[in-house]
Specification:
Layout: H1 2-13, H2 26-29, E1 37-41, E2 47-51, E3 57-58, H3 63-75, H4 96-100, H5 111-122, H6 127-142, E4 148-149, H7 151-159, H8 162-172, H9 181-192, E5 194-196, H10 198-204, H11 206-209, E6 213-214, E7 219-220, H12 224-237, H13 243-249, E8 254-256, E9 261-266, E10 270-275, H14 286-299
Antiparallel strand pairs: 1-2, 1-10, 3-5, 4-5, 6-7, 8-9, 9-10
Helix pairs in contact: 1-14, 3-5, 5-8, 5-9, 6-9, 6-10, 7-9, 8-9
The structure holds glutamic acid.
Length: 307
């Protein structure tokens, strides 16, 4: 495994076309695109690292996997009244479908869906308390108390978040919101701004590769059925309008973020986190996707493979 990921890392570092870093969040535009990291964590707890695996990056939309998991714990199936379970086929920040479908987002991983999930998990609590709970949950999953929110990124998102504010106000206009829009947005922007490295992220995702149990702590995070369903949503909706392409090329449930990270799950085999800040045209890490494609090919881990 170490040889495989070291080869992948040197291949990726040698590539010229690394994609473009997200610039609509100014703080993300400052990130050096010449960075690459991959961490693979096995259910046994064994960790394989290659590249700059201790560098912190903004997990952005990958946080939506954790907030969905929390929401399922708090609300159970009632969360599906707020968001659907279908791929959108639209860009991550699209507003179009919301008008056609009475303000109910297609899935929890498009921005509108994750904003609705943030509203659902607040349950009358102020944003500070909700954020503390989200952060505590991520720390528990990663077994690492040092994980924190990057306040600069959160502020940067808040200052330039007109599109997300539009989505939130539009949904609120259908009477779906339980909390003031600005509080929900504050919660959403801050959980997107959690900073992690690939090793922490791969560890945090391990419960999804291990029937809902985090083997490093022994805790059952979710039931095996729920883990399976979260994986299904990651496969079908985790890469926005690039989800079909990711399933085709990589064949693993995965969730990307515009910070350039991807969390991928090989059920029963491994949890994998990659990071390369340059994005492709739909907002997914260009080299991160390529690295996962190569890893899936070398290991035979695609869920569609008969091996
Ligand atoms: N915080 C980002 C936004 O709301 C998340 C997008 C992403 O990572 O795909 O635009």
């Amino acid at each position: 495994m170490q040889d495989i990921i070291d080869e992948i890392t040197s291949d990726m570092l040698g590539r010229h076309d690394k994609g473009k870093v997200a610039s609509y969040i100014p703080q993300l535009a400052c990130v050096d695109p010449n960075q690459f990291a991959i961490s693979v964590v096995l259910p046994s707890g064994e960790v394989f690292n290659s590249g700059c695996t201790s560098t912190l990056f903004s997990i952005q939309s990958i946080s939506k996997v954790f907030t969905l998991t929390l929401a399922l714990g708090k609300l159970g199936n009632a969360i599906w009244k707020r968001v659907g379970r279908e791929p959108s086929g639209d860009p991550f920040n699209s507003i179009v479908q919301l008008e056609h479908e009475q303000g109910k987002p297609r899935n929890p991983f498009v921005n509108a869906g994750a904003i609705a999930v943030a509203d659902a998990i607040m349950q009358g609590h102020p944003p500070k308390e909700t954020l503390a709970e989200i952060l505590q949950f991520v720390r528990f999953l990663a077994n690492d108390e040092t994980i924190a929110i990057d306040e600069k990124v959160a502020r940067s998102e808040l200052e330039t978040g007109s599109r997300n504010a539009s989505l939130a106000h539009f949904m609120a206009s259908f009477g779906h919101f339980e909390h003031p829009v600005d509080q929900v947005l504050g919660t959403y922007f801050h959980h997107c701004s959690i900073a992690m490295n690939t090793q922490q992220l791969a560890t945090a995702g391990l419960f999804l590769a291990n029937n809902g149990i985090n083997p490093s702590t022994g805790f059952a995070v979710v039931s095996a059925m729920r883990a399976k369903r979260i994986n299904a949503l990651m496969l079908t909706c985790g890469h926005y309008d690039g989800s079909g392409e990711f399933a085709f090329r990589v064949g693993l449930p995965g969730k990307s973020g515009v910070g350039g990270g991807i969390l991928a799950v090989a059920p029963g085999k491994a949890s994998i986190a990659v990071w390369s800040p340059g994005l492709d045209s739909v907002g997914n890490s260009k080299l991160g996707s390529l690295a996962l494609e190569k890893l899936a090919h070398r290991t035979g881990w695609s869920i569609f493979s008969a091996d």
